[in-house]
């Protein structure tokens, strides 16, 4: 017997007809306690967030770069996608060495993107669309053009002398230690004025702040409170594990042909870091109804309890255990389906009682998920819908990255010179240094360059995909004539309509926002499956999700869907016990 997928309509959940005999009623033990229930109803746990990379989203004035007014123009689109919050990557004044992650002034808007008035009206207009704006706090470092740094570098006696991490050279004049920055090369840069080196975890133009100095911390809290007063809904906090440096800054054991060691291994999550972060919370967001999600590479599910939740520093953490890739691209390994499942299940379990999970598979630093997780032969549309299904049905707040809802894919440029991303050339050179040929090195770039995610948003089939009337700051993906909002709005079977459909289902089913997460088929090598269960005295709502993450057929014990009603399938129908490549299905319990 085949379940037929029902064309989505507002009646969908009421009008389902095909079913097996009885999706099991859930036992009392799955009923969430009153406290747990209450803690699941904050606005940011009920909604869907959407990440915007302003450079690439929508250009309103034809200068080739996206801007704030462009975002305001697209609020209706985002509302139609069920989005309730927009995370904006940095829009502050910046020389744009790292596209805004090098902040010159947190109180000013980058003129490329507009003015503070544009920002105020974006916040107000977004509110009218029931959308809150989430700002990106880049607090590990600033731009080397930030006044704080310009002051600090003047001399050792400057009032801001120790706002950054300064050290003397080794006796031979070389850098204080052998740490390699995340973007390659030494993490130290010589400064002639001070005759000292400064530390930069990322690019040379991004000197690290000295969080040990209470004045620095207070200045950062003031910035946060300024934006809270502007009415933003939350903060994404950039690259937080690096803010505390160890007391001893000694050489580390080299891990590459360059004789250096990754700074990540020397400074990430230094003991005592949480004291700073608890202080940050108390002096800024605590009790104000705004949420925080911190980027915390290396803080795995086992450590989450210290970092998130009522007694933790943040509400959510972006950690990366479920993503393919590595800081050093040529060292990246493919991630297997059991590894993806294990990582996601661990995070789901870890956030069941501590904090909340931000569900994401893409962002502005990562390749497109249809490429990252699947082979070149995979059906892109099925793959995008399979990942979209996980996005919108795992327990947590989904963070859709712009274009992910279209199934946008990687670019494949053949020369490293074409890439703009500040991390691309150093990674290419690192691969050459390690003995890879230029032909091999470019394949790492093609797989991992951050520009894969940064090509302009594909709105329609017109010149430059409707993104700009000028010359786009970064080349478009050539596939924009097929993959774009206009085409996908009109095609009921598109990835975009899948996201809309699942977003609607998510709104209607408490199981998907407030229900708990119970893995099923945990040992299955191809299928990731789970139940989302919301059970209370007068309601019993269960959604069963099955996603075949493999590109081959799979089977499972059909007993697990006995009594279930098919809500939706990315093939249009499904046969219990069997799944086709990349098939994704949702079942409801029979009412
Ligand atoms: C984060 C950002 C990334 C940036 C880096 C340095 O990882 O997501 O884009 O380059 O921090 O600020």
Description:
This protein has 591 residues and is of the alpha/beta class. It contains 19 helices and 24 strands. It has an eight-stranded parallel beta sheet with strand order 14-13-11-6-3-2-16-15. Helix 11 (304-307) links the parallel strand 13 and strand 14. Helix 14 (380-393) packs parallel to helix 18 (495-508) and helix 15 packs antiparallel against helix 16. Residues 6-22 and 25-35 have low confidence and may be disordered. The structure holds alpha-D-glucopyranose. Alpha-D-glucopyranose binds next to loops.
Summarize the structure.
It is built from 19 helices and 24 strands. By secondary structure, the chain is of the alpha/beta class. The model is unreliable at 6-22 and 25-35 (pLDDT under 50).
């Amino acid at each position: 017997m085949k379940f037929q997928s029902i064309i989505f309509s507002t009646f969908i959940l009421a009008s389902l007809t095909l079913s097996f005999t009885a999706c099991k009623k859930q036992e009392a033990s799955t009923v969430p306690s009153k406290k747990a229930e209450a803690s699941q109803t904050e606005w940011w746990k009920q909604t869907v967030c959407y990440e915007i990379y302003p450079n690439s989203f929508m250009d309103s004035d034809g200068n080739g770069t996206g801007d704030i007014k462009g975002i305001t123009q697209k609020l209706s689109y985002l509302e139609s996608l069920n989005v309730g919050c927009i995370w904006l990557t940095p829009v502050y004044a910046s020389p744009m060495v790292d596209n805004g992650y090098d902040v010159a002034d947190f109180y000013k808007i980058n003129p490329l993107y507009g003015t503070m008035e544009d920002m105020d009206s974006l916040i107000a207009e977004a509110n009218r669309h029931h959308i809150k704006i989430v700002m990106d706090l880049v607090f590990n470092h600033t731009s080397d053009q930030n006044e704080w740094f310009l002051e600090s570098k003047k001399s050792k006696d400057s009032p801001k002398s120790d706002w950054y991490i300064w050290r003397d050279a080794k006796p031979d004049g070389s850098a204080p230690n052998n740490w390699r920055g995340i973007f390659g090369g030494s993490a130290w840069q010589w400064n002639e004025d001070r005759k000292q080196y400064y530390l930069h975890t990322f690019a040379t133009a991004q000197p690290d702040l000295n969080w040990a100095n209470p004045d620095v911390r207070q200045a950062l809290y003031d910035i946060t409170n300024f934006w809270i007063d502007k009415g933003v809904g939350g903060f994404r906090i950039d690259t937080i594990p690096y803010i505390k440096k160890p007391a001893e800054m000694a050489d580390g054991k080299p891990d590459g042909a360059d004789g250096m060691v990754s700074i990540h291994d020397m400074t990430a999550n230094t003991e005592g870091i949480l004291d700073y972060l608890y202080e940050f919370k108390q002096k800024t967001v605590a009790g104000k109804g705004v949420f925080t999600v911190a980027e915390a590479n290396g803080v795995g599910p086992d450590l989450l309890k210290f970092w998130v939740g009522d007694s933790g520093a943040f509400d959510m953490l972006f950690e990366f255990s479920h993503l393919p890739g590595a800081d050093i691209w040529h060292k990246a390994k493919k991630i297997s389906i059991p590894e993806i499942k294990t990582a996601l299940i661990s995070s789901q379990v870890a956030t069941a009682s501590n904090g909340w999970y931000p569900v994401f598979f893409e962002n502005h630093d990562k390749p497109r998920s249809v490429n990252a997780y699947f082979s070149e032969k995979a059906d892109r549309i099925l793959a995008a819908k399979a990942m979209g299904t996980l996005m919108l049905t795992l327990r947590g707040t989904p963070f859709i990255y712009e274009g992910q809802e279209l199934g946008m894919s990687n670019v494949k440029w053949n020369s490293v010179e074409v890439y703009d991303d500040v991390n691309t050339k150093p990674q290419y050179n690192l691969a050459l240094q390690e003995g890879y040929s230029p032909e091999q090195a470019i394949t790492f770039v093609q797989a991992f360059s951050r520009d894969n995610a940064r090509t302009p948003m594909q709105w329609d089939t017109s010149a430059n995909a409707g993104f700009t009337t000028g010359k786009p700051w970064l080349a478009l993906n050539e596939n924009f004539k097929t993959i774009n909002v206009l085409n996908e709005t009109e095609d009921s079977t598109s990835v975009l309509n899948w996201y809309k459909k699942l977003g609607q289902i998510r709104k209607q089913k408490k199981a998907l926002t407030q229900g708990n997460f119970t893995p099923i088929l945990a040992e299955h090598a191809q299928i990731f499956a789970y139940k989302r269960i919301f059970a209370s005295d007068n309601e019993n709502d269960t959604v069963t999700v099955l996603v075949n993450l493999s590109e081959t057929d799979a089977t499972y014990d059909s007993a697990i869907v006995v009594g279930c009603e098919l809500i939706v399938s990315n093939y249009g129908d499904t046969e219990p016990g069997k799944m086709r490549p990349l098939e994704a299905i949702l079942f409801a319990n029979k009412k």
